[in-house]
């Protein structure tokens, strides 16, 4: 794996800060600082030799998918080991293995967490293994989210383009159609509230939803310069979104009591109290948990802001090659097949319930037809496929993404006591700058 200088890391949009998971390595030998960085690019295994790769992931039944590859590639065999979801313990397990000089060949790593793994030299730069030849198979926006400092540190696996799920029968009660802009959405939400329902839920604890709204509006919270970071969390496009939801929450047009997909939310949705839901493509499977919901929901494009894009992303993972892999070339080959071939994508959907395909040329055969649950709508091809192509390509993750989400959530909780989301965003920006400074990172506020 290539050793990256401080200047390269800063230029590539990284820095030297560590998130909560990476901080667990304190006092341990950081992987890649000596032996890993000193190793040359590893050549492929010789002809006739059998390679066995290990892959740690939290996807269910992933071995069934790997077995398709195994049957076709007898000299490169892949064994799956299940780990908890990233922040539920999977990342800690990976960091501990890396610190011990071990770990799997491959791991499921969320795209927003790649910078943290890179800060501990935990990932292989796949550009050394000619990964550029495969770039055209993947969505360019997502390819950008795994690329730093001229290197590529993961193969995009899935994402979550956003749209609006809605109940056409409940909208019809107030004489409304799916709104095309957020301004129209607010008007419909007022009519819905007068009818005793809520248009949607606005989670105060899960700030990834607010982040996705800001992303859609065209905000870019972080950008890297030659000598450090520029932060613009409290820029005008983000504050526009915050002012909008300040008013929406103050007027009671959304509920803040139920987190989407929580037991309380499922109960409210089953009782015809939730009219719509702005969420990701993977929300279709979760909606099936609403009692009596089959045939009653539809999908429409997300309402748009005056500036920005037609959609945004909620979630997204990569298949990364870990620093101590003895066979990075073969690991990359498997990762590319898994996440770009029709066979791999279809098997991931059928067995593992993977999110949206990162190959724009193959959304997955199971997703091409009509859906009985959504009343015969071809919602994937009609809504999510265009949404996946209308994204904020300038968005960039940063080394303390999860910590920033936590800071923002702490501030947002004050909204339940009458505080302002606008003020919360401004304070969160300042707190994030302070965290960067304590980690020895240079950061400045964008000019406004």
UniProtKB/TrEMBL annotation:
PROSITE patterns, sorted: PROKAR_LIPOPROTEIN, TAT
UniProt entry keywords in alphabetical sequence: Cell membrane, Lipoprotein, Membrane, Palmitate, Signal
Segments passing through the bilayer: none
A Pfam family hit: SBP_bac_1
Record SUPFAM superfamilies: Periplasmic binding protein-like II
Domain of life (superkingdom): Bacteria
UniProt keyword Signal, yes or no: yes
Protein's name according to its UniProt entry: Extracellular solute-binding protein
Species, as recorded: Nesterenkonia aethiopica
